[in-house]
Design a protein that fits this description.
Order of helices and strands: HEHEHEHEEHEEHEHHHEHEHEEHEHHHH
Radius of gyration: 22 Å
Distance between the termini: 42 Å
Structural class: alpha/beta
Number of helices: 16
Largest sheet: 9 strands, mixed
Number of domains: 2
CATH superfamily of the largest domain: Periplasmic binding protein-like II
Strand content: 15-25%
CATH topology of the largest domain: D-Maltodextrin-Binding Protein, domain 2
CATH architecture of the largest domain: 3-Layer(aba) Sandwich
Shape: globular
Number of strands: 13
Length: 361
C-alpha cells in the first residue's frame, strides 16, 4: 500500500512551508444561492485512482492553508467519476471529476443532456504507466510486442486469427524466464486501461507486424484495431476494478503476477515492487519529462463551471492545485511522482479565465 508515513511527512513539510500563504475566504464564502439546492460548503471530487493521491495531497494542504473545509476526494475510476460529474448541476452532484484520460465526446453529450454544459478541462501534469512485479522475483525488459503476444486474445498467424495459447513468458520471448503469464491490468472503467490498450497492446500489435498482416489479408482497419486490442479471458490476464492497492495485493498473493501501475504508486512501493523497462527505458519522472519513456499520459480534472462562485472555495482550490508552488517541478506533487506540465502557465490561465471546453478562448 502507499507509504502513509512518507505522505504524512510530505504534507507536514509543505504545510509548514506554505503557512505564509494562508488566505481568508471572503466573497466565495457568501456566494451560496438562496436556494437549498446549493446548501453545501465543501468541494466534492471523485474519479481516477491515479489522480487520487495528488488530489488528496492538495486537498489536505488546501484545508490547512485556507479558511475553507477540506475538500472531499473519492476514487472509483475515471469513467465512474465522469459519470457522477455528468449527473447534473446542484449540491447533490460533485464539483470536480479526476481523470487519467481526456473526457470523451459521448460523455460531454451526456453531461449536456443533464444540464452540465460548461466544463473546464484542467491538465495537471503527466504520469507514466509502469509494469512491476514482486521485488524478489524475475526481472523483465519488455517491449509492447511482448505484452501483445502475452495477453492478446488472438494472434494473426499464417493469414488467420488463432487463439492465444501462450502460458509462460519464455513462449512470448525466449529471453524471458519460464514464468507463468499472470497479468493484472486495469479494468475497463479505469482511464489507465484505454492508454494501456492503445500505447502498449495496439502498439505491440503494430510493431510486431500483426496489424499490417491483417490489413494485407483484407481485414478492415477498425476490425484489425479491435482484434489487436482484444484481451484474452482465460485467466492469464485479470482485470482489476479497484485501485492500485488491489493490484499490489494480487501480486503479494501470487509472486508470478505482473501488474500495471502508475509511476507514482510504484515509486512509493519500491520496497515491495521492481519495475520493468519498456523499450530499454527505465520509467522515471526524468525519462517521462524528456519524452524517452514510451508509455506516459496526461492527467486531468474537470470542473463544473456552474458551481464556481456557488460552492465556496471551488475556484480557489483549482487555482491552488495548479499553482507553481504545488504543481510546479519543485512542488509536492512532483516529489510524489507527478511530471510537471511544461505548459503550466497556460493551464493556470484556463482556470483564472474560466475557459470552458469548446470556447476557443
Amino acid at each position: 500500500m502507499v507509504e502513509r508515513f512518507a505522505l504524512y511527512r510530505l504534507l507536514t513539510d509543505w504545510s509548514d512551508m506554505m503557512s505564509i500563504m494562508k488566505l481568508t475566504a471572503t466573497t466565495a464564502a457568501i456566494a451560496l444561492t438562496a436556494t437549498s439546492s446549493f446548501a453545501r460548503d465543501n468541494v466534492q471530487i471523485a474519479g481516477s485512482s491515479t489522480v487520487l493521491p495528488y488530489a488528496s495531497i492538495v486537498a489536505e494542504l488546501f484545508g490547512e492553508n485556507f479558511d475553507y473545509p477540506t475538500p472531499v476526494v473519492e476514487s472509483g475510476g475515471s469513467s465512474a467519476g465522469l459519470k457522477r460529474f455528468c449527473e447534473g448541476v446542484g449540491a447533490n452532484t460533485i464539483d470536480i471529476a479526476n481523470a487519467s484520460r481526456p473526457i470523451r465526446e459521448n460523455e460531454v453529450a451526456v453531461c449536456a443532456d443533464a444540464g452540465v454544459t460548461d466544463i473546464i478541462e484542467v491538465r495537471i501534469g503527466y504520469d507514466g504507466i509502469v509494469f512491476a512485479s514482486d521485488i524478489a522475483g524475475n526481472s523483465f525488459e519488455f517491449t509492447p510486442t511482448d505484452w501483445y503476444k502475452a495477453i492478446a486474445n488472438e494472434h494473426f498467424i499464417d493469414g488467420a486469427l488463432v487463439p492465444n495459447t501462450f502460458e509462460t513468458w519464455d513462449q512470448v520471448n525466449p529471453d524471458f524466464p519460464a514464468q507463468p503469464i499472470q497479468a493484472f491490468i486495469p479494468g475497463t472503467k479505469h482511464g489507465t486501461r484505454e492508454v494501456f490498450e492503445e500505447q502498449v497492446i495496439l502498439a505491440g500489435c503494430e510493431d510486431g507486424g500483426f496489424y499490417e498482416a491483417m490489413l494485407a489479408a483484407g481485414v478492415d482497419e477498425d476490425t484489425a484495431e479491435q482484434k489487436c486490442m482484444a484481451i484474452r479471458t482465460d485467466g492469464r490476464s485479470v482485470d482489476i476494478d479497484g485501485d492500485y492497492t488491489e493490484t499490489l495485493a494480487r501480486i503479494e498473493a501470487d509472486s508470478n503476477g505482473i501488474g500495471v501501475f502508475g509511476l507514482s504508486f510504484y515509486e512509493n512501493n519500491t520496497n515491495l515492487l521492481q519495475v520493468a523497462t519498456m523499450n530499454g527505458v527505465v520509467p522515471t519522472t526524468e525519462s517521462i519529462a524528456a519524452g524517452e519513456y514510451p508509455v506516459s499520459r496526461p492527467l486531468y480534472f474537470y470542473i463544473k463551471a456552474a458551481h464556481i462562485g456557488v460552492i465556496p472555495g471551488l475556484k480557489d482550490f483549482a487555482e491552488f492545485f495548479v499553482s507553481d508552488d504545488i504543481a510546479g517541478p519543485d512542488g509536492p506533487l512532483a516529489e510524489y511522482g507527478l511530471v510537471s506540465d511544461p505548459e503550466l502557465l497556460d493551464v493556470q490561465d484556463t482556470i483564472a479565465n474560466e475557459m470552458v471546453m469548446g470556447s476557443g478562448s
